[in-house]
Amino acid sequence: MADPMIANYYNTGRYTMTNMHKRALLALSCLACGLPSAQVLAESNEELAKKLANPIAAMISLPFQMNWDGNIGPLQDGDRFTMNVQPVVPISLNDDWNVISRTILPIVDQSDIFPGSGSQTGIGDTVQSLFFSPKAPTASGWIWGVGPVLLLPTGSHDLLTADKWGGGPTGVALKQQGPWTYGVLGNHIWSFAGDGKRNDISSTFVQPFVTHTWPGGLSMTATVDSTYDWNGNQWTLPLGVFVNKVTKVGGQIVQFGAGPRYYAESGSGGPHDWGFRAVVVLLFPR
After folding, report:
1. Does some domain include residue 24?
2. What mean pLDDT is reported for the chain?
3. CA distance 144 to 54
4. How many CB atoms neighbour CB 40 within 10 A?
5. Max intra-chain CA distance, the chain
6. Residue 271 belongs to domain with CATH number
């Protein structure tokens, strides 16, 4: 039997739209509308990845940075797992300036970091940084911020805390050109109060970094999280390379990242050889 729709088409010499055609047209329209949306999402992911490459971007984020380090201690038979909870909160001061709050709260599980130490699990000392940063880059494209850094003795165990209050200056400078972000972040902390029986702190942290971002939110970052202990005259130099991807899980925008670290230099009581880092960042763009 001939299809009535086809028969009607040829018998009348004109097209008669049926419900099926309406549904097909609607589906094609939705598909056509969806293609630009996917492109916008990809571009958005790329921009979000670039913002995450900037330590003082004006975007709320909640990173969970997980580090595994081994071969710790004089016998190099200790290991440590640290999850740094690192909320980043920008605060607008006026039309020209932001202050960016960056907190690092470590949750630590470690064992045998020196002979007879056993195992410890708990919270380490908190580092709180505030960066006062212009909202607009300089005429040459540099983004920068400076401010104070504080060390808070929040550690829950004697072997998870320096038991010292500390403070000092912190600063960051970076440039973003095309897919590249490069710069350096640093601070210096002196102890000024705390347990008089514990060692004083005079420590410099310098972190050069470079990131390349691709369309779709994929990026690769190389860093050197270098620390110099002025009292012990000792460098700690972990080199890291990490691959990251911005995506969406349910309704939440997330960045996942992971990669190896290698300790090019470390004291006798520190980690040695290879480590590993994985990161999950919850993003809350405005």
Report:
1. no
2. 88
3. 10
4. 10
5. 101
6. 2.40.160.40
